[in-house]
Specification:
Layout: H1 5-25, E1 28-32, H2 39-45, H3 47-52, E2 56-60, H4 64-73, E3 78-82, H5 83-91, E4 96-104, E5 109-114, E6 129-132, H6 137-148, E7 157-160, H7 163-172, E8 177-181, H8 184-190, E9 192-197, H9 198-203, E10 209-215, H10 216-221, H11 223-242, H12 244-249, H13 251-261, H14 268-273, H15 280-286, H16 289-304
Parallel strand pairs: 1-2, 1-3, 6-7, 6-8
Antiparallel strand pairs: 3-10, 4-10, 5-8, 5-9
Helix pairs in contact: 2-13, 5-16
Length: 326
C-alpha cells in the first residue's frame, strides 16, 4: 500500500521515535572513582562503549557514600565503591548486586602522618586530627587499625572529609594525619609517612576490597550490558597481570591512568603493584563465600562501631558471579 505524504511522515516519525527509545534504553550512568587500576585504560579508550553498544555517562565521585546515594535514587545504574560503603548499603536495603571484585586493596590506601605533627608511633595519634571520608574503606581501615593498636577512637579527633577537602586541609596544615587513597594519598606522602597500609591490615584480619555493583532492576533488564562491562574490566586486568612491568613501561597506559585518577605518573607503578586485580577464574570463586563472608564481617564491625543498626542474616543475595564469563 502506498502511503500519502502525511502518513509517510507519521511513519518516519514513529520509526525515529522507536529508534530513539531503543537507544535511550541502552543509556547507562556509571559512577567511578579516582582509584588507580588497569581498567582506567579501557575507560579512556572507549572500550566499554564499544563492547556494550551502550551510551555510557561516566560520572566521577569522591567517595562511596555519594555513589550509594546516587544509585539508591536511580540516577546511577553501575558504580565502583569500597567494601565498607557497599556493606552499609546492602545492610540498609539498597537493591544492588556485587558483580565484580575490582581490587583487593593493598598499598593503595594508607594511614599517613604529617611530618612534624609529633606522630612517630600509633599511640601518638591520641589527641590528633585525622581526616577520612566516613563510611569508606579508609574509614573502616582506620577504625580497624585503632582497634588493633588498642586506641579508643573517641580519643582521636576523626574528621569526615572528602578526598579533595583532605588535600586542601593537608596543604593548609589543618590535619595531622589521614587515611585515604590517591590522589590525596600521594599529596600526603609527599610530606608524611605511612603508619600502616590496607594490605598490612588485611593480613591482620581486616581486609578491604573495591567492587563493581549494579542496581538489581537494571541488571535484570540489561544482563548483556553488565556481562560485557565485566568482560572489558577483566580483559584489562588480564592484560596487566600478564606482565605488570611491561604494562607500566608503556607511557600511554600510565598517562591514561594518570588522567582519570589524578595520581602522579611516578606513583602509578607502585600503587598498581600494591593491589590485587582478580581475573575471571578467580572471580568465580571470590563472588561466592569469600565476598559474602567479608561483607558479613564488615557489617559486624560497622555495627560494633555504631555505623549500621544490624547485621543481615545472609549477604549472598547481593553477590553474584552470573555476569563473569571466562
Amino acid at each position: 500500500m502506498k502511503l500519502n505524504t502525511p502518513l509517510r511522515l507519521l511513519a518516519a516519525l514513529s520509526l525515529a521515535g522507536a529508534s530513539f527509545f531503543a537507544q535511550a534504553a541502552n543509556d547507562v550512568t556509571v559512577a567511578y572513582q579516582t582509584t588507580v587500576d588497569p581498567a582506567k585504560v579501557a575507560q579512556a579508550d572507549g572500550v566499554y562503549e564499544k563492547a556494550t553498544d551502550a551510551k555510557i555517562n561516566w560520572r566521577k565521585f569522591d567517595n562511596g557514600a555519594d555513589i550509594i546515594a546516587a544509585i539508591a535514587s536511580g540516577d546511577v545504574q553501575i558504580g565502583y565503591l569500597g567494601s565498607s560503603p557497599l556493606t552499609a548499603a546492602i545492610t540498609r536495603g539498597v537493591p544492588v548486586e556485587t558483580f565484580l571484585v575490582a581490587t583487593q586493596i593493598g598499598g593503595a590506601e594508607a594511614l599517613v602522618a604529617r611530618n612534624g605533627s609529633g606522630i612517630n608511633s600509633p599511640q601518638d595519634l591520641v589527641g590528633k586530627k585525622v581526616a577520612v571520608p566516613f563510611v569508606s574503606t579508609g574509614h573502616y581501615s582506620l577504625l580497624a587499625a585503632l582497634k588493633h593498636w588498642n586506641i579508643d577512637p573517641s580519643k582521636v579527633t576523626i574528621l569526615n572529609l572528602a578526598p579533595p577537602a583532605i588535600i586542601a586541609a593537608w596543604k593548609r596544615g589543618d590535619i595531622d594525619a589521614t587515611y585515604v587513597w590517591d590522589p590525596a594519598l600521594g599529596v600526603a606522602k609527599d610530606s608524611g609517612k605511612a603508619l600502616i597500609t590496607s594490605g598490612e591490615l588485611g593480613k591482620l584480619g581486616a581486609p578491604t576490597f573495591d567492587a563493581w555493583i549494579v542496581r538489581k532492576d537494571y541488571a535484570a533488564k540489561h544482563p548483556e550490558i553488565v556481562k560485557e562491562f565485566a568482560k572489558v574490566t577483566l580483559d584489562a586486568y588480564a592484560d596487566y597481570n600478564k606482565d605488570p612491568k611491561a604494562w607500566v613501561a608503556n607511557p600511554s597506559n600510565v598517562a591514561k591512568v594518570e588522567k582519570l585518577s589524578g595520581a602522579k605518573a611516578a606513583d602509578i607503578p607502585g600503587l598498581l603493584e600494591g593491589n590485587v586485580y582478580p581475573v575471571a577464574a578467580e572471580q568465580k570463586v571470590l563472588l561466592g563465600a569469600p565476598t559474602t563472608k567479608a561483607l558479613t564481617d564488615t557489617a559486624a564491625f560497622l555495627k560494633e562501631q555504631g555505623k549500621v543498626d544490624a547485621v543481615l542474616p545472609d549477604y549472598a543475595p547481593s553477590v553474584t558471579a552470573q555476569f563473569v564469563t571466562q
